[in-house]
Amino acid sequence: MSGSSSDEQRAQAIQALESDPQGLDYILTVDIFNEGIDIPRVNQVILLRPTESAIVFVQQLGRGLRKIPGKEYLTVIDFIGNYQKNFLVPVALYGDTTYNKDTLRKLLTTGSNTLPGTSTVNFDPVAKERIYDAIDQANMSKLSDLRDDYKRLRFQLGRVPMMVDFLEHGQRDPMLYVDYDRSYANFVLRVEGEAWTGERLDAFPKKLLELFSQEINNAKRVTESVVLEALLGGEVMDLASLNQRMQARFGLTCSHQEWVSVQNNLNFGFVNNLHRVVREQGGALVIDVDLEKALENSSFRAFLSDSVSYALRTFTKDLAQGEMVGGFVRYRKYGRKDVCRILHWEKDVSSTVYGYRTVQGQTPLFVTYHKAEDVTESTKYKDAFVDPSTFAWQSRSNRRLESSEIQEVISSRRILLFIKKEDAEGKDFYYMGDVMVIEGSVVQDFMPIQQNPESPPTPVVNFRFSMDTPVDEAMFEYLRVKA
Fold first, then answer.
1. Closest by alpha carbon to 483, among 401, 375, 333, 370?
2. pLDDT tens digit string along 90-113?
3. Fewest C-beta atoms under 10 Å: which of 89, 125, 128, 346?
């Protein structure tokens, strides 16, 4: 059927499709029946053209989702498969419009756990891997898409939307705007242009907003944001007051070591971009001259308060969905810089961490589970789960058992395991948990293939770690299955 079919022809076709058993098996349509048609007996939807929109995809599925006695499931077959847009499948099925890649992967990994009632969705392995690949390859921060979603929410609200508005209305993750323009304020000013009615921002407050947005209020550690919230509210903040807030709001506490780290981070000493944001006065933190000057600008104050609120709300949501282990939420993603900051390291040394580094008795391990095909033989490390409770890991090449680097790993008071499935996932790694060296498992080994057959074998050290908690079954299978 097409748009040229008469109403009578359409009605006859629908009646024939609903007839049992002598009626039609299928109706082929072109750009009709996408919405507004009710044929409860439909139990199979076959897609024969690419779908560019999550809304259209849901409308097409909806033709088969009406309930009727004896109809227990709907089969959907996509013969075309617009694989560049396959990330729209979890967007449509799970109703998540944040366009946050990690959120979409988790929805697909957990399957039907997040669906209401007794609804279930099942994907065959090939389809699931193609969707994962589409998520990895998709550009979720295209200016045209960001601008469209911004303008849509602006029209809905009748005013300039802030980051928290995107959260409250279930819209695109506003950190995508930060990723694109270094701060949400920058994006708003880009889109609003001369129509902007707020107070103008000069270079210095703009720079501070960029630093706060990227280095402090990214919701990976919440302590700095709690301090900022209090200071912006006209309060001073000492460690005891901070712990009262942290305990009441998140069930967490801040150690003295973290307290020192927070002061350093708020002044951007961690990223070697020192500013006078806070200072200590009588054992409490108060606003220092650089932040005080910037806060004279009403637009700066509004955007900074909004950034803080975004961080607090996002952290609250993530914490409710995962288990906190020593500053990290299990199965949440972190970049190397985030890890260094949360572990209270004084400076950002993430560019020198590579696969691992031991500082102050703490060793984070960063593992790419499936190595790219074009990596050198000397970096094809045998890192893999033996089972959900055991992880096999290899040190960097050209390392021997007696080297100080290896001994530091062995004697670490804390070893943390971070994994990403493959390089296409981006720069961030899932925090899998803390691990312990299995006694007797650390042995000298050698890389199996040498660059030069005449060269001596390349030494490497093998470890086996026990997980603090067995890996969740869905995450375990997701990481192990290669696309």
1. 370
2. 777 777 777 888 888 877 877 666
3. 125
